[in-house]
Write a structure and sequence with these properties.
Helix content is 44%, strand content 10%. It has helices at residues 28-37, 55-68, 110-125, 146-153, 165-179, 185-194, 199-216, 222-237; strands spanning 44-48, 73-77, 97-101, 129-134, 156-159. Strands 2-3-4-1-5 form a five-stranded parallel sheet, sandwiched between helices.
Length: 242
């Protein structure tokens, strides 16, 4: 059984993402370490990396692999959750794998830190595995609860590296195929050349292009990419603009 891949109050539902459609680049050893953690009772991992480096994808992939092995797994995405949502962690000690994403979102919030600390302890006491992911390295994570900081330091620490432009291009091609669209090489190269955004935002650009092409009955072209990038830039300058 696989529990819902995100907490009920998470606002950004994630797709099913597996190891097979993750472009490893320099991160192949990290993928191997994550998969090996499923073989160890009470395994604990802290995974860090910049936005768009693939943390969420890998946590979902690990949950999917755990399910394929007959384990129970839960992905808890902490982004956009209200301050009082920490009670949703209650009872998760009964799963075989707990993946907590975006811990930096709740660092410094006493109630959340206490809830995470006790959830991890209860899970570990039953032999469960847990993986916590965040943007900063563990040493830079501004935790207020020393016990939680100490608990996270006990485990394996992994740091994702950023993909090269060619590897990002491969990610875009795979995502385009999943969306059912053809991504011409010149459009892919234009996105990589004209956008300074990290990978997650490149993917959102591609999704916006797919929607614009569908709505306007247009092909995926450089002019369309230019329009979508311009719209994203305007929204970045004025978040209230449409």
């Amino acid at each position: 059984m696989l529990f819902s891949p995100q907490l009920p109050l998470q606002l950004e539902p994630s797709r099913e993402q597996g190891f097979a459609n993750f472009v490893p680049g320099p991160n192949a050893p990290i993928i191997a370490s994550l998969r090996s953690s499923l073989d160890e009772e009470s395994a604990q991992v802290y995974l860090c990396g910049p936005p768009g480096s693939g943390k969420t994808h890998l946590l979902n992939a690990l949950c999917l692999e755990a399910r394929q092995r007959g384990m129970t797994a839960f992905y808890a995405g902490l982004k956009h959750l209200p301050a009082d949502a920490h009670a949703l962690l209650d009872g998760l000690e009964h799963v075989d794998l707990l993946c907590v994403d975006d811990i930096q979102q709740v660092a410094g919030q006493a109630a959340w830190e206490e809830a995470l600390f006790h959830a991890i302890n209860r899970l570990r006491a039953r032999g469960g595995r847990w993986v916590v992911a965040g943007e900063p390295r563990l040493s830079a994570l501004p935790l207020g609860l020393p016990d939680l900081a100490s608990r996270l330091q006990w485990g394996l620490r992994l740091s994702l590296q950023t993909l090269s432009d060619s590897e990002k291009g491969e990610v875009l091609q795979r995502h385009a195929a999943a969306l059912g669209i053809a991504l011409p090489e010149e459009v892919r190269n234009y996105l990589l050349r004209r956008s300074t955004r990290h990978l997650a935002e490149l993917v959102r650009l591609l999704e916006a292009m797919q929607q614009a092409a569908f709505t306007g009955k247009r092909r995926i072209t450089v002019p369309l990419a230019r329009e979508v990038i311009a719209r994203f830039d305007r929204q970045h300058e004025d978040p209230g603009s449409v």
